[in-house]
Amino acid sequence: MKILFSPSEAKNSGGVEKIFDQNSFIFPQLFNKRVEIINSYNEFLQTASTPQLEKLFGTKKSEVIEKYRQDIFKSPLLKAIQRYEGVAYDYLSYNNLEKSSQKYIDDNVLIFSNLFGVLKANDENYQ
């Protein structure tokens, strides 16, 4: 059984400094397309005007905009299930589960990311 989770607007910071590769995600055959999309997104972040970024992120708070304006490839990686925060993620309380429960979630939860597409819970992604 697969469990479907939506992403959340808010994301947790942190993770490990490393480069993702085609084995970092479910559906490795989509890796090149993901890189193309992420490169386009990253380029937009670096060149967009403040009003464009305010519209994209739905906020005028400069601290939020600057947090997400950083070069995505210089951000640390973190498991998708730990990256997102929100009501469902709070109730799941992944970090407080037993290792066997975490493994079940890692293997069976799919998260629909607007940027990365479908992710397994243990796929590592950027902030």
UniProtKB/TrEMBL annotation:
Designated name of the protein: Peroxide stress protein YaaA
Please report the organism this UniProt entry assigns to the protein.
Answer: Aliarcobacter cryaerophilus
Name the lineage. Bacteria, Pseudomonadati, Campylobacterota, Epsilonproteobacteria, Campylobacterales
